[in-house]
């Protein structure tokens, strides 16, 4: 396994500016990402009080069902005694969802280890599972690669209800078939049987999307003590009830501040990621497992579809008596994390960075300090097969990420064209056109009126020439199918659908090739969160 750190040619303006020393974007955050910032944030946390014993007990009770390793137990003990956390999170995707879920967890673990050494204090890694999210269509599929082409693989069950991932029951038979189909696309290796049996076993022991996600993630990261918690876990919801009350009490001013900050973000030339409105309560109401966004209107919190209409006092009562009936959105989730956890740093992707850039006024309104935002590691995995193909085709990964594979493929296809066939067809077509001209001239002098018929007949023969040309070109290209598939394999593995690999493929595609030690080996590499893109040849 080899690590190379490259400058990413795929740029995100906001992320690029965040890594810049003097960009205006830093005014939207509490801290720049610096060594000094971690010391300052740690000192701030040590002057605050957290319910660490209760929090550790809740996380321990959540994780018991999934298995607590020795290192996880040690981290729980440290949290109970007042350790701070590095936290990141993601939706509960099938087969962990896209690779960036795993990359977030790796980033969290490595950053926690780094800061533990620098601060000489316990810093534990934590993964916040957004089991409250209800966009099942976003998490019910994955991608594989067959014959050099990207293939979408979906879980067959569908629901019209807006149920949360943590309350959506899995169809065991459909899930098993989904897993078998995906692994069939991966192909058979020495690692397939054990890996497939493990995944199928976890599927059998899962009732919901969140169960399956937690079992797989815990299996991958248990040696590294990654703490995990589902946002919908009822004991945690009860733990949060006072924090929900604060979000309700300050609801209007939070929304107003976010709208104003997002407008400022737009004025600086950045995208406006939330499209916030001052009427949005930024809280969901849960009814029979479904999630309904509340809006403020006339002093009440409402959702017409759910027939929900609460005064502020009634919603506060729900928060106190049934907090499991409430849920956060992209605005209030970071605020809830800050109130509930001793967050040293939050690890997120480019999309989350954009959301967070709108939130400083909301933190200020609750007299909270925005934690350090740590951009997750961006990683591309290169198999030995594709590494050899890159060398053979005289391409680099940067070439692939900048679209040069298509250019090289087009040049190759042009180079193998059968020019003699092309010239022969062109000559035949030219002869036909000359003959039509002669016939047209003769008919006009003979006072025939068949111009439309001639034109129709000529067009028919031209289409036949075009059909013949395309068929012959296709047959010629098929002789070079292997070489063409090699170009497509390079593109599909490294930059599938013109997107980073980590946004489509799940980790099991690479575990199937490399083995279950892949995660452990990745965590041994000297990777640090930075502006660099991590290129790893397996």
UniProtKB/TrEMBL annotation:
MF annotations from Gene Ontology: ligase activity
Coiled-coil portions: 418-445
EC numbers for this chain: 6.-.-.-
Boundaries of every Bacillithiol biosynthesis BshC C-terminal coiled-coil domain copy: 379-538
Record domain Bacillithiol biosynthesis BshC N-terminal Rossmann-like: where: 1-377
Pfam families hit by this protein: CC_BshC, Rossmann-like_BshC
InterPro entries: Bacillithiol_biosynth_BshC, CC_BshC, Rossmann-like_BshC
Top-level lineage group: Bacteria
Record keywords, A-Z: Coiled coil, Ligase
Secretion signal, residue range per the UniProt entry: none
Purpose: Involved in bacillithiol (BSH) biosynthesis. May catalyze the last step of the pathway, the addition of cysteine to glucosamine malate (GlcN-Mal) to generate BSH.
HAMAP family in alphabetical order: BshC
Family membership: Belongs to the BshC family.
Protein name: Putative cysteine ligase BshC
Gene responsible for this protein: bshC
């Amino acid at each position: 396994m080899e690590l190379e750190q490259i400058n990413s040619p795929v740029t995100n303006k906001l992320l690029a500016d965040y890594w810049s020393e003097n960009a205006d974007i830093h005014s939207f955050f509490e801290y720049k990402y610096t060594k000094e910032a971690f010391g300052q944030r740690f000192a701030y946390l040590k002057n605050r009080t957290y319910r660490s014993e209760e929090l550790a007990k809740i996380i321990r009770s959540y994780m018991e069902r999934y298995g607590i390793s020795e290192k996880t137990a040690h981290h729980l003990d440290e949290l109970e005694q007042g350790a701070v956390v590095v936290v990141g999170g993601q939706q509960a995707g099938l087969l962990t969802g896209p690779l960036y879920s795993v990359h977030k967890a790796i980033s969290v673990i490595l950053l926690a280890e780094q800061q533990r050494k620098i601060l000489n204090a316990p810093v534990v890694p934590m993964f916040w599972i957004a089991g409250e999210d209800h966009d099942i269509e976003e998490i019910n599929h994955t991608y594989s690669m067959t014959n050099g082409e990207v293939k979408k693989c979906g879980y067959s069950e569908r629901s019209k209800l807006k149920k949360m991932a943590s309350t959506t029951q899995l169809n065991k038979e459909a899930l098993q078939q989904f897993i078998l189909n995906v692994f069939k696309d991966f192909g058979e290796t020495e690692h397939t049987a054990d890996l497939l049996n493990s995944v199928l076993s976890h599927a059998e022991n899962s009732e919901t999307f969140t169960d399956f996600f937690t079992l797989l993630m815990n299996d991958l990261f248990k040696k590294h003590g990654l703490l995990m918690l589902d946002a919908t876990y009822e004991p945690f919801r009860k733990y949060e009830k006072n924090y929900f009350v604060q979000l309700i009490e300050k609801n209007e001013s939070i929304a107003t501040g976010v709208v104003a900050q997002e407008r400022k973000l737009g004025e600086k030339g950045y995208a406006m990621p939330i499209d916030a409105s001052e009427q949005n309560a930024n809280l969901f109401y849960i009814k029979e497992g479904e999630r309904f966004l509340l809006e403020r209107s006339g002093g009440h919190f409402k959702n017409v579809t759910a027939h929900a209409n609460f005064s502020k006092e009634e919603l506060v009562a729900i928060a106190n008596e049934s907090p499991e009936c409430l849920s956060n959105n992209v605005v209030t989730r970071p605020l809830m994390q800050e109130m509930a956890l001793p967050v040293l740093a939050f690890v997120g992707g480019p999309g989350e960075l954009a959301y967070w850039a709108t939130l400083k006024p909301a933190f200020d309104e609750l007299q909270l300090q925005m934690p350090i935002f740590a951009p997750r590691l961006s990683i591309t995995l290169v198999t030995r097969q594709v590494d050899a193909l890159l060398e053979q085709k005289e391409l680099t990964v940067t070439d692939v990420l900048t679209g040069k594979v298509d250019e090289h493929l087009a040049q190759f296809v042009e180079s193998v064209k059968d020019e003699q066939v092309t010239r022969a067809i062109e000559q035949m077509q030219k002869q036909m056109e000359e003959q039509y001209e002669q016939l047209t001239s003769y008919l006009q002098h003979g006072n025939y009126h068949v111009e439309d018929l001639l034109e129709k007949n000529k067009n028919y023969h031209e289409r036949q020439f075009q059909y013949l040309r395309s068929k012959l070109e296709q047959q010629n290209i098929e002789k070079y199918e292997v070489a063409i598939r090699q170009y497509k394999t390079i593109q599909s593995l490294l930059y599938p659908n013109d997107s980073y690999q980590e946004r489509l493929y799940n980790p099991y595609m690479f575990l199937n090739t490399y083995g279950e030690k892949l995660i452990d080996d990745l965590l041994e590499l000297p990777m640090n969160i930075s502006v660099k893109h991590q290129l790893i040849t397996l």
